[in-house]
Amino acid sequence: MGSVYERELKKLLTANRFLVVRAAGSLGVDLVAINSNVAFPIEVKASRTPRLQFSACSGRAQTQAEVVKIPTSAYNLSGA
Predict the structure, then answer these.
(1) Considering only CA atoms, which of 16, 42, 20, 14 is closest in space to residue 33?
(2) Distance between CA 73 and CA 30 in Å, rounded?
(3) Alpha carbon 36 to chain centroid distance?
(4) CATH number of the domain to which 15 belongs
(5) Are 78 and 46 in contact (CB under 8 A)?
(6) Are strands 19-22 and 72-77 parallel, antiparallel or unpaired?
(7) Are strands 19-22 and 31-34 parallel, antiparallel or unpaired?
(8) From the centroid of its chain, how far is CA 44?
(9) Based on the structure, what is the number of domains in the chain?
(10) Which of 6, 45, 52, 71 has the most crowded CB, counting CB atoms within 10 A?
(11) How many CB atoms lie within 10 A of CB 11?
(12) Residue partners of 18: CB distance under 8 A and separation at least 6
């Protein structure tokens, strides 16, 4: 589900003059969008519920936050 939204977001950003690199397998961020002025690391989340929850048990969200100092998130409410 998240990979479908990653591709949709990549297409949208590319249409708006960004070079977008997709890092399959979540290597810290899912997409990096770059244009002549800025670069955005983007972590993409998708869910069937209106509330996005991170598990504190895995620590994955914390690790990603530490690796990517300025995270940009994209959230898609799927199946709505």
Answers:
(1) 20
(2) 10
(3) 20
(4) 3.40.1350.10
(5) yes
(6) unpaired
(7) antiparallel
(8) 2
(9) 1
(10) 6
(11) 11
(12) 33, 34, 35
CA neighbor of 21 nearest in space, from 73, 29, 62, 52: 29
Q: Are 43 and 73 in contact (CB under 8 A)?
A: yes
d(CA 70, CA 77): 23
3: closest CA among 79, 76, 80, 57? 76
* Structural domain harbouring 32: 2-77
Instruction: Tell me the pLDDT tens digit for each residue of 57-73.
Output: 556 666 665 665 555 66
State how far the alpha carbon of 1 is from the alpha carbons of 31, 62, 66, in Å. 15, 22, 25
Side chain identity at 62, as an amino acid letter?
Q
Percentage of the chain modeled with pLDDT above 70? 54
Q: pLDDT category, 3, cuts 50, 70, 90?
A: confident
